[in-house]
Amino acid sequence: MYKILKKRKLYDNVNEYVIEAPLAAKNARPGQFIILRVDEKGERVPFTIADYDSERGTVTILVQTVGATTYELSLKNEGDCIQDFVGPLGNPTDLTSYGKVLLVGGGIGGAVIHPQAKLLHSLGKAPDVVLGARTKELLLYIDEMRRYSHELFPMTDDGSYGGKGFVTDKVRELIADGDYGAVLAVGPMPMMQAVAEVTRPTRLKTIVSMNSVMVDGTGMCGCCRVTVGGERKYACVDGPEFDGHLVDFDEARLRQAFYRDREKEHFCRIRGEVK
């Protein structure tokens, strides 16, 4: 069993959990993920590591309540335990060889790029960061990013904070004037695809995180397969981060939506909204 040491509500349906998991924390690196089960009858669900502390033995994850398992997790509080917490899984992404890095986070993707910003800052290579959301209230980890970035560029769809527009507007502006070696974009799939299209003409190295449907996290089930450069890859063992210019986003978006209706129905049942 793994204890929830801290729970922080960031928005109506977004919670941050600090989990006591010494072995996972000891080996965690930016870009990796964990798979958890809330209880012994629960499904296995992946979450990218938002932070880790090897000395304290903790791993931090950010969870948006969108389905049955995340709803069950949202009912857990500090001091409660979850059944399983496996990781770190996947391949870490090492951006330390690049002279200048641009990190782009959309929505809860801001938490996913957080470990990268923290590591680069510790090495004296603080990145530029673009954070985007629909409104000011949905901009997550903005204080953390301000601490670890060289320059922070918040963007909101409605202009309620920072620049008005999409993250791609700011990315286009920055890469025209900057000498970036790489871009890491994490967020909703349409956003990552849009960022990759903005950087494609310049052939600027662009990495995206494919948060696919997973079951076992070992490549055996095949649920998380994605086409990259015309080849079949598995997000759990070959990723989760890939070259954004090579990912078949159209296929990935279709696969992502495959179980959406069933998940929505189950989510309503577990909350007692339908029988």
Describe this structure in words.
By secondary structure, the protein is an alpha/beta fold. The protein folds into two domains: 2-89, Translation factors (Elongation Factor Tu (Ef-tu), domain 3, Beta Barrel); 101-256, Rossmann fold. The chain is built from ten helices and 16 strands. The chain has helices spanning 22-27, 68-74, 109-112, 114-122, 142-148, 167-177, 189-199, 235-238, 249-256, 260-270; strands at 2-11, 14-20, 33-37, 45-53, 58-64, 81-82, 84-89, 101-106, 128-133, 151-156, 163-164, 182-186, 206-209, 225-228, 231-234, 241-243. It has a seven-stranded antiparallel beta sheet with strand order 6-1-2-5-4-3-7. Helix 6 (167-177) runs parallel beside helix 7 (189-199). The chain starts with a strand and ends in a 5-residue tail after the last helix. The model has no long low-confidence stretch (mean pLDDT 87).
What is the CATH homology-level superfamily of the largest domain?
Nucleotide-binding domain of ferredoxin-NADP reductase (FNR) module
Structural class: alpha/beta
**Biggest sheet architecture:** 7 strands, antiparallel
Sequence of strands across the biggest β-sheet:
6-1-2-5-4-3-7
What's the CATH class of the largest domain, please? Answer: Alpha Beta
Rg on CA atoms, Å: 18 Å
Individual helix count: 10
**Beta-strand fraction estimate:** 25-35%
Order of helices and strands: EEHEEEHEEEHHEHEEHEHEEEHEHH
Total of domains: 2
State the shape. Answer: globular
**What's the end-to-end separation, in Å?**
31 Å
Report the count of strand segments: 16
**What share of the residues lie within helices?**
25-40%
Low-pLDDT residue spans = none
CATH topology of the largest domain: Rossmann fold
Average pLDDT reading = 87
CATH architecture label of the largest domain: 3-Layer(aba) Sandwich
